[in-house]
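Field notebook, page 334. I keep forgetting to write these up properly, so this time I am using the form the group agreed on. The chain and the ligand, guanosine-5'-diphosphate-alpha-D-mannose, are recorded exactly as supplied. Prediction of the bound pose follows.
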Amino acid sequence: MRAVVLVGGFGTRLRPLTSSIPKPMLPVGHLPIIERLVMNLARGGVTEVTLALGFKPEPFIEAFPDGQCAGVTLRYAVEPEPLDTAGAIRFAADVAGIDDTFVVANGDVLTDLDVSALVQFHRDHDAEATIHLIGVPDPSAFGVVALDADGRVERFVEKPAPGTAPSNLINAGTYVLEPSVLDRIPLGQKVSIERATFPAVVADGRLFGVATDDYWLDTGRPELYLQANLDVVAGRRPHDHCDAVHADASVAADARLDTSVVGAGAQVGAGAVLERSVLLPGAVVAAGAVVADSVVMGRVGEGAELRNSVLGADGVVADGEHVHGERRPDPDAT
Ligand code: GDD
Ligand code: MG
């Protein structure tokens, strides 16, 4: 089975982390998000993945130089300009020569969904498109469906105004599509699968959905990206585990680590404290500093305190400084 994975977004909500690394290449439990995502597709029977890229493919090619990721063959489709979700799927499917039932995944979603079961449901219902659904308390930030008793989607609404969602079942970002879906997408144009293509398939009664209660998380916001890391280190995912401290990190013997991830090459000084935080490769937490509920790429100085914050590659907290609820460097500064 072949798959297209959408990785062309700008990762705006994860800035300043994504100022230096594209969102799908950010590590979750020491492995890039895209690798953990592809691992799950491979478990579900996917053997070839085409990455639908909106810009520079170099970081991906460097990370997977032999064109293999989690035992799956990788191809790259680089759009001349961002084509939005459906436009990107059409473009990538053309590059890969897809002409049979295929899988699509949003590149920022981590899930333990059994993809082979989704494919089986799709075939059993003679669907043109089948989407994975998850129930959430507040669906307004997602695509939301109304489903009938057979699993047929009666309505698909992308990001409904608060209070107007037809249900609590959201589009979880993994699809099984027939190639006929591609014929619905005009070539070389910006088209949204959520706003244009899915509603058209609904009108023909051929969009289905399967709700599961699998582990599922969209890593696209800092607190959720942090959560994705903590879930892996805390063993909350059946197939995915990681050590809290990477073998190439340097952590002082008297530093205290509580439910945190320390990436390759990161340094933690004497007496420093980490709580529910992630240090990305190259991060430095100097002696006596306290870091809580934060993601760090840059440097936290001696005796400093960083809470509920995101520190990008160029982010620095001075010795002794206390920082609460900040993004540094400020991505909105001009
Ligand atoms: N190649 C390419 N080109 N990829 C794109 C483009 C583009 O122009 N625009 C977005 N993407 C990719 C993003 O990189 C991401 O992996 C995926 O498409 C979805 O975009 P997001 O920006 O993350 O969308 P979202 O999280 O607001 O909403 C989507 O995901 C939700 C589930 O997490 C929608 O599919 C919702 O319906 C869904 O509920
Ligand atoms: Mg997203």
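OBSERVATIONS:
- The radius of gyration is 21 Å.
- The pocket of guanosine-5'-diphosphate-alpha-D-mannose (ligand 1) is lined by residues 6-9, 52-54, 79, 82-85, 88, 106-109, 142-143, 158, 170-173, 194, 218, 220 (CB under 6 Å).
FOLLOW-UP: compare against the apo run.
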